[in-house]
Each structure stands twice: as structure tokens, then as C-alpha cells.
Design a protein that fits this description.
35% helix; single chain; 620 residues; ten-stranded mixed sheet; eight-stranded mixed sheet
């Protein structure tokens, strides 16, 4: 479904191609329709691509062509469906929507409905959207279905089978579920087509940038633990599919890429499989340790031999032979029994001569230490378990290690097969807001996911890493491990709120936050000052005309949603990038604290993030 204006652009591209045998440039489209900027022209082309009318390849100016009709399919829009109170089911074919065939499965019949109401907003279905439905009479638990209840009332909800009834669950915490003994299913949602016209067409809104939602980037339910991706947990990891697709779209084989906030190294692993050389930079020492281990393709047979030898050594180590680590609060975070077992394991691993294999098994040990500690699992911050739970806590240290190590060995086996041998990975412990020795104009593509805000109030990378880092001797003095978070972006609040960053979006957010809490506004400002310096360094190392993709969440501070994606676009444009695209994806699998307390009132939970934006910048 395309708008009148989009149709005009489409006709222009078609006529132009027929005449010249190549497509018009963005500049020509801008000129022809008197658009405000080339990015508006780009927006129209994107919309036509999404509607399956045009295809365009990146990096190739004028590489737009009209899509072969055979690749698209017209789906009837049968009427409206309530994502709210059920409404009378209307089935009057009025219009059709055209989508590309590969967007839906070949099996089954499909139809589309317009959505009314807001009961499904947490599933990313908004008032005015169009949902594509595959006709079927059965659905799995948790699927979003078109349900007919009470004779002919249609509603769009998530379906759950309970003991002796059905629950139709809205995806909106303010609404109650509907319970029925009988429900008739008319199909399941397979695609959501966002009604972005009112929100993203710059000519109709006051926003400087546009944000489009692209659900094809969700990768819901896909395996994110392939290769070495699952060897260790890390906060806010990339899902490999996102890193892979960005690398494939914005770089090519043989390129040198860089992840300036590489964390545990997801993008670096993908680069190795995709035949790209890669630099990774991070300021958290545990991240560096993990990224190095993850990107080392180890011969799995050799590794398995060392592992078996390790297990037999482990059995023989006596309590008297071990050395307990010497860090503050060791007894608070670990029970004596766990400390002894961990110390034995560490000793057995340290006896491995091959450094790469030793470090790889140390990664499984690091996870074991976290699981064997008295901390709550599922928290990034260090929170001690309490009361009876703590009393009963008796972790099977060796069992945890064996399970983890064996899964990791399987993962590295897959990676060993697929990692390209001719490419290199260099991992730098450094601050990305400063120079890190990478040559100017030497990088073909930067793919990264920056922190969401200062570590203290968002994702505490340092705190998450502390116990592991202390056990595996990452610091000469293990007590220094608690200082990591204050070194990371936004780690030290600014003294005042005056600054020279050129971003209206940032100033607006800072004003709103400062009215409620000046010191929080200073934390926020410090983060963006650091981020701006990182953008400048990124600009220096990137080759001209090359892409810089940032996966970023728009966080909530004091009930103020900070549009980090737009702020990055504004800051980057001052530095010498153009913002080519901003699109939004759901975060079904990213390990993030979905709830926190932005009000700092205990119990006042707010959703921080279940969507993230991908900002695509290009060096001018
Ligand atoms: C969102 S995480 C990256 C996760 C990564 N994509 C992965 O898949 O594991 C952000 C990272 O930025 C790092 N970081 C924060 N401030 C930094 C700085 N000034 N320089 C370099 N890295 C920094 C944090 O230590 C953290 O590892």
C-alpha cells in the first residue's frame, strides 16, 4: 500500500529508468519533488522498497529498479479488527496491500486487516497498522491470533490455553485478559505493516529525523548461541543475527571492520565467519578477555583432550593445595565450600600450558564462579540472595563447570569449522572516546552497540563482571575491579549543565530531566559528551563514504524518553556524517534489564526498553 506521493515518486523512477536506462539519483528526486533534503528522497525510496515496489542495493548510486511483478503478491485487506474491545467482524474486501513474496511463507492463504485500538502495543501492533494473517483454525500458545468470540465479535489478542478455558491476552499492561470457554481462531499474525505515515513522513511531522519500524530485524525465537556466541553471558549483547546482517549489508568480504564498544565480541565472531578483518575496542577488562576467547578458533579435538586431562587432575587436588583468592567480601559473595571447589578448578585450569586453551576454559570457569556465587541469577547488578534461599544455596560447582565447558567446546567446534583462516581480529583494551592507535581513514565499516547510558543507573558492565574478573586474576589488584563502571561512558557526572554539544534533542531532554533532578541530568550529559567524542574518533578512523551503524536504545530517565537515536544523528551530522537511516527493531532476546526504577522509588517499575534503534551513518 503506497501513498499518493509515493506513487508519484514511483512513477517518476519508472519513467526516468525507461528513458535513461538507469535510475534517478536522490538529488534528482529531491529536485523533481522540491523535497527538503536528499534524506526525504531516500525515505520515499525506502517506503517503496518496503512496499515491494522498488529494489535498491546499497553503495550503488542510481541502483534503484522497479521490482519484477512476479516477486510481489497482493493480499486483500478484509476490513478492520479490534485490538481493544471486540468489534463486529467485518469482512468486506476494500483494498489490497502489495508485499514481496518472501515476506510470507509459501504455504497457506493470507489476508490483511486494519488494526483499531491499542491493546497490542507491547507486541508492536498499533492503532492504524495493518496485520497480515495466515488463515488457520489452530494456533500455538502465545501466538497473536484473530479470534472470534460471542458469535461474531472479532479481536486481535495473544492466545493461551488454560486448564479448562482460553485466555485472550492483550499486550498492554493496562488492559485485562478476556476468558472464554470457546474461541474460534481465524488465523495468526505473520506480519505487521506499520502505519508510519503520520509518524515518519517528515513533511507531515515536526521531527527532524524519521524512524521506521522494521520487524524483519526481530529474529524472535532464533538461536543466538551458535558458534562461540553462547560461551559466556554479557549484558546487552548483540544478537548475532543483527551483527551479521549489518556486516553483510554495509561491508564486504576482505574489509576491515571495527566494533568500538565490542563487549564480549559478538560482531567480531561474525566478522571472522564472514571473512572480514576486525578490530574490537572495549574498556571493560572482562569484555576483552571474553572477546579474545570467543574469536579464537581452537581445534576442538585438542581442546577436548585438555579438558579430559583437566577433569582427571581436578579429582586429585587436595584441599590443602589450593590458594583462595584475596579480594574484599569474598566470604559475603561465596560460601566456603564453593570457594574451595572454585579454587581447585582454577588451579587445574592454570596448569594448562597452551594459553589460548587455558583462557577458553577459564571462560567456563568465570561463568561457574558467577553461578556458584551468592548472587541472584538473572540480575546484572550484584544482588545477594537472602534468607532461607541463601541457607539452602549449595551449588554443584564442578557440575556447573562441566556443563558449561562441554557446551562451550561444542560451540567452538562449530566456529572452528566456519571461521575464515586468512582474516585477523585485533582486540584493544582502550577508551573509544580517545585515540587507540587505529590509523585514520583505515576502517571500511563500524558496527557497534554503545552502552545505553551511564553504567551506574543502566547496565552496570563493571559490576556484572566484578566477581569473575576477581577470580580469574584479570586485575593485578583484584580490588580494583570495582572501579570499572566509573571509567565507562558517563561514569563521572559533569560538574555543571553547560556544554557545547550541538543537539536540540539532547538539550530538550536535559531541560526536562534537570527540572526534576539536576544531578541525574549531569549523569546524562556526561554520557553524551563521552559518546560525542567516540563519534569523532569513529569519524577519524573510518574511510570516506563508508558506513557506521549503531544499535542503540532510547532510555527513560525520570519519565523522560531520551531519543538517543536522534541525538546521535544530530551530533554525527555536525562531525561530518550523514544520517542515512534510522529503523527500530523489537528486542525479543537481548539480555537487558527490561524493568528498572527510573523514578528511583523502590517498586515503581517502568519499562526501560523493549525496542532499539539502528542508526545508519555514512561518512561524507
Ligand atoms: C552494549 S555493550 C556491547 C555489547 C557487545 N555488542 C556484545 O555483543 O557483547 C557496550 C560496551 O561498551 C563498553 N564501553 C563503555 N564505555 C566505553 C568506552 N569509553 N570505551 C570503550 N568501551 C566502552 C562497555 O564496557 C560494554 O562492554
Amino acid at each position: 500500500m503506497i501513498t499518493k506521493k509515493q506513487k508519484q515518486v514511483f512513477d517518476f523512477v519508472k519513467e526516468y529508468r525507461a528513458k535513461h536506462d538507469y535510475a534517478p539519483s536522490l538529488e534528482e528526486i529531491k529536485h523533481r519533488f522540491r523535497l527538503a533534503s536528499v534524506s526525504t528522497a531516500h525515505y520515499y525510496l525506502k517506503k517503496l522498497q518496503e512496499a515491494g515496489q522498488l529494489k535498491k542495493q546499497f553503495n550503488q548510486p542510481r541502483a534503484v529498479s522497479t521490482i519484477d511483478k512476479k516477486q510481489t503478491i497482493e493480499i486483500p485487506i478484509l476490513g478492520a479488527i479490534a485490538a481493544g474491545q471486540p468489534i463486529e467482524a467485518i469482512e468486506v474486501p476494500d483494498e489490497t496491500i502489495t508485499i514481496t513474496k518472501d515476506e510470507i511463507s509459501k504455504q497457506g492463504k493470507h489476508y490483511a486487516l486494519r488494526v483499531q485500538g491499542n491493546s497490542m502495543i507491547n507486541e508492536g501492533i498499533f492503532d492504524g497498522d495493518i496485520v497480515v494473517i495466515r488463515k488457520q483454525e489452530m494456533a500455538d500458545n502465545g501466538q497473536t491470533v484473530v479470534a472470534i468470540i460471542d458469535d461474531n465479535q472479532a479481536t486481535l489478542k495473544k492466545l493461551y490455553r488454560e486448564k479448562d478455558r482460553f485466555r485472550l491476552q492483550p499486550a498492554n499492561p493496562t488492559l485485562f485478559p478476556i476468558y472464554r470457554d470457546e474461541v474460534e481462531i481465524r488465523g495468526v499474525v505473520v506480519k505487521i505493516i506499520r502505519n508510519l505515515e503520520s509518524q515518519t513522513d517528515k513533511e507531515q511531522s515536526n521531527e527532524k529525523y524519521t524512524r521506521r519500524i522494521d520487524y524483519s530485524w526481530d529474529y524472535r525465537g532464533e538461536n543466538t548461541k551458535t558458534y562461540t556466541h553462547g560461551i559466556h553471558t554479557y549484558p546487552a549483547m548483540f544478537i548475532p543475527q543483527v551483527a551479521r546482517r549489518l556486516l553483510e549489508t554495509y561491508s564486504k568480504e576482505g574489509d576491515t571492520i571495527c566494533d568500538i564498544f565490542c563487549g564480549s565480541g559478538t560482531a567480531l565472531v561474525e566478522s571472522k565467519v564472514l571473512n572480514r578483518n576486525a578490530y574490537g575496542i572495549d574498556l571493560n577488562p572482562l569484555a576483552i578477555f571474553l572477546a579474545k576467547a570467543k574469536t579464537a578458533p581452537i581445534n576442538p579435538q585438542k581442546l577436548a583432550r585438555e579438558y579430559i586431562a583437566l577433569l582427571s587432575r581436578l579429582e586429585k587436588i587436595k584441599d590443602g593445595e589450593i590458594k583462595k583468592p584475596n579480594f574484599k567480601n569474598l566470604d559475603f559473595w561465596f560460601k566456603e565450600k564453593a570457594i574451595i571447589k572454585l579454587a581447585k578448578l582454577k588451579k587445574a585450569i592454570q596448569e594448562i600450558e597452551d594459553e589460548v586453551i587455558r583462557n577458553f576454559l577459564m571462560v567456563a570457569f568465570s561463568e561457574t564462579a558467577r553461578y556458584a556465587s551468592n548472587t541472584k541469577t538473572g540480575e546484572f547488578k550484584l544482588v545477594r540472595i537472602k534468607g532461607e534461599k541463601l541457607e539452602k544455596h549449595d551449588p554443584d560447582v564442578f557440575g556447573i563447570f562441566r556443563k558449561k565447558a562441554e557446551a562451550n567446546i561444542t560451540g567452538v567446534g562449530e566456529f572452528y569449522k566456519e571461521a575464515k583462516r586468512g582474516v585477523w581480529t585485533k582486540i584493544i583494551f582502550g577508551d573509544s572516546s580517545k585515540s587507540n592507535g587505529i590509523k585514520e581513514n583505515s576502517i571500511d565499516c563500524i558496527i557497534t552497540s554503545p552502552p545505553y547510558g551511564d553504567s551506574r543507573t543502566t547496565v552496570a558492565y563493571g559490576q556484572f563482571s566484578r566477581l569473575s574478573a576477581q577470580w580469574i586474576d584479570i586485575f593485578d589488584d583484584p580490588n580494583k575491579a570495582s572501579g570499572v563502571d566509573s571509567e565507562l561512558l558517563g561514569g563521572r557526572a559533569t560538574k555543571t549543565l553547560s556544554h557545547i554539544l550541538s543537539s536540540d534533542y539532547l538539550n530538550d531532554s536535559l531541560d526536562k530531566i534537570a527540572k526534576q533532578d539536576e544531578s541525574r541530568a549531569k549523569d546524562v550529559l556526561s554520557f553524551y559528551i563521552g559518546l560525542n567524542d567516540c563519534l569523532k574518533r569513529a569519524h577519524e578512523i573510518l574511510k570516506p563514504k563508508k558506513y557506521f551503524c549503531l544499535v542503540i536504545g532510547n532510555r527513560l530517565v525520570k519519565q523522560v524518553r531520551i531519543p538517543t537515536d536522534f541525538i546521535i544523528a544530530e551530533l554525527a551530522e555536525k562531525i561530518g556524517f550523514t544520517c542515512e537511516d534510522i529503523f527500530v527493531r523489537n528486542i525479543p532476546g537481548k539480555r537487558m534489564p527490561i524493568k528498572n526504577s527510573p523514578t528511583n522509588i523502590v517498586g515503581a517499575l517502568e519499562e526501560t526498553m523493549n525496542k532499539e534503534s539502528i542508526v545508519v551513518l555514512r561518512k561524507s
